[in-house]
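Input structure tokens:
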């Protein structure tokens, strides 16, 4: 995500990695339809935000590729941090 200006249309194919545990997964961002992996997303110049089926909220900072997941739980929730890079 840090290589040049962020695209304003089209698809972005990223791989997001948790540096602590090594968990990683690919995501596809459809800027034309404001979706991430076919889920509705809010796309701005600085951020891309979306939710998963379990109530987790994802916030991707476009300039740095840093992704934060705020997960809901009965004990108050948790945060996970990832770095996303173009595939």
């Amino acid at each position: 995500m840090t290589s040049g200006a962020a695209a304003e249309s089209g698809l972005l194919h990223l791989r997001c990695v948790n540096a602590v545990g090594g968990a990683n997964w690919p995501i596809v961002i459809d800027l034309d339809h404001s979706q991430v992996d076919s889920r509705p997303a809010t796309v701005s110049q600085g951020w891309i935000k979306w939710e998963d089926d379990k109530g987790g909220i994802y916030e991707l900072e476009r300039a740095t590729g840093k992704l934060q997941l705020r997960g809901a739980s009965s004990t108050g929730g948790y945060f996970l941090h990832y770095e996303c890079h173009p595939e």
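The longest strand covers residues 78-86. The chain has no helices and eight strands.
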